[in-house]
Structures are given as structure tokens and as C-alpha cells.
Here is the input.
Amino acid sequence: MAEMRATGWALAYPASLLVSGLGGVLALAVLVETGLPAWLALGLMSAGLAAWTLLEYLLHRFLLHGVEPFRAWHAEHHRTPGQPIRIPLAFSVPLVLAMLVLPSLLLRNVALGAAVSIGLLVGELAQQMVHRRLHAEGGGRWIGALRALHGFHHHQDARLGFGTLSRFWDRCFGTAPRA
Here is the structure.
């Protein structure tokens, strides 16, 4: 991680929001051009946001805790959770590109895919902001509940509590800490 900081191949929050933000602007421009009905676009954006919570859980559990070099990068965050989170471009750029391209390919429709992409990217942006908040003071009840889960994951058992925006997938897949 120190090598990435020195060479600039990682972006610290809030600069890390730029990659996803630019992807979202691109997807929004495509969506506006297609003329998709607003009700359908909003529904697909909501579906994309919900899909992000699953994707975030899976990426955290299996990629960030199991595959090098992502595991090593993430382990640095576990060792120094109070330090600014740095997202390697080698991780963020391919992730955003996949979120921009795969929905259109899977749905075989650029308009539908752009709407889903916006939901995915909004989820990713929200996840970065919430994750940053989980390592700070204050927040409401929702942040407090997520902070407790995240704190358990960091300080008691890194094999449990992978969700950042939601505890839903931890409950579904049996990785929620016992009360």
C-alpha cells in the first residue's frame, strides 16, 4: 500500500469518488439520450442500487479477503482503519467499467443497462461515503448499527460482517455476527 501511495496509483477519499462519479455522469448522459420512460428508469436504478449491496458484499467477502493483491491492500485498511481509505485505480477503474458495460450486455439493451449502471454507481458512491463515516464519530441509528457490525468485522472476527450499506446479505449468507 505504501508503494501505491508514493506512486499515486491509489486515490484517497474523496478523490476516489471521481472514478465512479464520472462513470455515473456518462451513464446518465446515455440514459437521457435513449428517452427511456422515467418510471422504468427509476425502477431499474433502484434494482441497480439493490444489486450493488450484493456486489459489495461479494467483493468484500471473496475478493478483498481472499484474492491477492486485493487482500493485501485490504489488510492494510484492517491494520490502520483510521487512515484515509485509498482505493487502487487497478481496482476502481475495472470495477466502474464493468458496472458501465455488463448491465447493457446482460440486458441486451443500452437504455436499460444505463439505468441499472446508474443504480450500481450510486450504490458504490454511497458505500464509499458510508464506509468513511463508519470510521468517524457520530451518526444516526442506521450508521450506529452499521458501525457496530463493521467494528465487529475489524476488531473481533474478519470472517463475519462484510456488508457496509446493509446487513441483509450477511443475514442471508450466515455471516452476520451473533447478537
